[in-house]
Amino acid sequence: MCGRYVFFDERNKTFKIWIDQAEKQFPEKIFREISLFEVFPGQIVLCAAIGSAKQNVQLSLMRWGYIGKKNKLIINARSETAEHSLFFKNSHRCVIPASGYYEWSDYPKIKYYFTAENQETIYFAGLCRNFDDQLHMVILTEAAKEPESLIHDRQPIIFNTKQAEDWCRGGDYQSLIQSSAAKRLMKKAE
């Protein structure tokens, strides 16, 4: 589940502002490494987490995926077990902003694009931690509901802006996980 997502599309005004901020905030060499459109595992992306002041949610650069056994990249985590998993111990909450994400059906192989109904911006619930002086993140998943359950058994936890802020500020884990945006829109990807 969620092996690729779209950060920015031209309709998302919020992300245009964030991209402009990031371009000013980070040196040019680092800014050019940020994946701003279709995002693949292992790439550097813009995420949001609570800043050191413990008050404001701020943009951070993170690499998508934790490094697992034999250097395998772990890109997703089951929300039902991640909170108590030793593998995710010492992780902190973050959110991964996106415009939508992709899934593929098995037979025939068709690429679908998912968004949340009535939301220009979605936020994946995530966990992050430091590996070799760089922040890495994973996306939390849950059992798929329709329409995604028609092609896959897992889907990302999606929050609106308020839920995303509550998640980053340490709101109740189970309540927030269960509040994941249920209504998703699915269409064949171009």
Q: What does this protein look like?
A:
The longest helix has 13 residues, at 13-25. It is built from five helices and 15 strands. It is of the alpha+beta class. The protein is globular and about 45 Å long. The mean pLDDT is 87. The strands form three sheets. Strands 3, 4, 7, 8, 11, 12, 13 and 14 form an eight-stranded mixed beta sheet that branches. The chain has a five-stranded antiparallel beta sheet with strand order 2-1-9-10-15, with no helix packed on it. Strands 5-6 form a two-stranded antiparallel sheet. It has helices at residues 13-25, 28-33, 79-82, 161-168, 173-178, and strands spanning 5-6, 38-39, 44-50, 57-64, 66-67, 73-74, 76-78, 92-98, 100-104, 111-116, 122-131, 134-143, 154-156, 158-159, 184-188. The protein has a single domain (5-188), classed as hypothetical protein yedk fold (Alpha-Beta Complex), CATH 3.90.1680.10.
Defining key terms:
190 residues; alpha+beta; hypothetical protein yedk fold; eight-stranded mixed β-sheet; five-stranded antiparallel β-sheet; 5 helices; 15 strands; globular
Helix residue percentage? 10-25%
Strand segment tally: 15
| SSE succession | EHHEEEEEEHEEEEEEEHHE
Q: How many helical stretches?
A: 5
* CA gyration radius, whole angstroms: 16 Å
Quote the average pLDDT.
87
Please state the structural category: alpha+beta
The profile of the biggest β sheet is: 8 strands, mixed
Point out poorly predicted stretches: none
End-to-end span in angstroms?
19 Å
Strand content: 35-45%
User: What is the assigned CATH homologous superfamily?
Assistant: SOS response associated peptidase-like
